Amino acid sequence: MPLHLAQAAALVGQATLSPEPGPLPLDRAAAAGDMLEDMLAGIARWRAHEWRRPEERAPVLWSDGATELRDHGGGTGRPVLVLPSLINGSEVLDIHPERSLLGTLRAAGLRPLLLDWGVPGAEEHGFGLADYADLRLRPALAVARVLAGGPVPVLGYCMGGAMAAAAAARRASDVAALVTIGTPWNCQEGIWIARMVRELVRPDPAMARAALQTMGASFGLIPHDAVQTLFAGLDPGLALRKFARFTRMEGLEAELFVAVEDWLNRPVPLAPAVAEEVLIDWQLHNTLAAGVWEVMGGPVTPDAIACPTLSFCARRDRIAPPANADALPGAIPGARIARPDTGHVGMIVGQKARAEVFEPIVDFLDNVRIC
């Protein structure tokens, strides 16, 4: 929030700069002030809003350290293992009763098993992604397989999609089908974060890794804000606009706004080694697309994935735009690509999420079941 406020103040300041010498026209000064006032009013309304997402927790089937495998299917239906990102909390997949991926799967007779990575505790402070894959994902996949009585579909959102692809490539006999949503893969394409990081560390590429290691040694974990600062730069005026719009929202639209903002502002710090992999190895060295990212005992090569695959690569995704995300399904034999007309988070919480993402997933998994 302090970063968003600072960005908004800077943008308003820029709006009040006149290209011509002399006093600023009163209408421009008033308009800039109104923009900031609307944003502040929206923030106050969000904080005071009566609606909050219920904190009911699904039954835990298995856990280790901070990670829990939760049964969001009520104990019945065909199991589907669902993997969220490690950067933000898993509740986005069940953000509101009217906009829930897990709820849609459950209503369709499926049994979503959510692998919630949790906030890294003492056991996970030294974890890299290979540790999460071997010590958290692999046992959870084994539990899901037992419940399914055989191979289980695996669905992953954002970073969770990369972990799901790893399971499909490295544990092929356990995975019946693969679904990825907004999963980055070719980080040399389509996103400015990698280019910005490369420019920042051009004089000494080891500097970024050393900085993350120092931060990890100082705080134990990489603070959530350190990562979110990069994403905030994708659209510096977003907070100014969205909180101003919130002052006019009512009903379901307002409740969804509150739910998403609560989610975005609930920090999930990263284990230092995970931050190094995601921000340096993935972004700078493009280890995913290069086929040298190693988990579960070897490199993750998409052409080794033989199960039916459906990947959602949204047209307006700024985190994993099509030039980036297409690389994963493009390397998987027979993979299907769906292109929702939405953004990265919109694929999960937006107005088009149910029609363009949730329901196609159900149809795809129904066809896999028939096969």
UniProtKB/TrEMBL annotation:
Molecular-function GO terms, alphabetical: hydrolase activity
Matches recorded under InterPro entries: AB_hydrolase_1, AB_hydrolase_fold, PHA/PHB_synthase
Domain AB hydrolase-1: 151-350
Keywords: Hydrolase
Listed SUPFAM superfamilies: alpha/beta-Hydrolases
Gene3D superfamilies in UniProt: alpha/beta hydrolase
PANTHER family found in the cross-reference section: POLY(3-HYDROXYALKANOATE) POLYMERASE SUBUNIT PHAC (PTHR36837:SF2)
Name of the molecule in the record: Alpha/beta fold hydrolase
Species of provenance: Pontivivens ytuae
Phylogenetic classification of the source organism: Bacteria, Pseudomonadati, Pseudomonadota, Alphaproteobacteria, Rhodobacterales
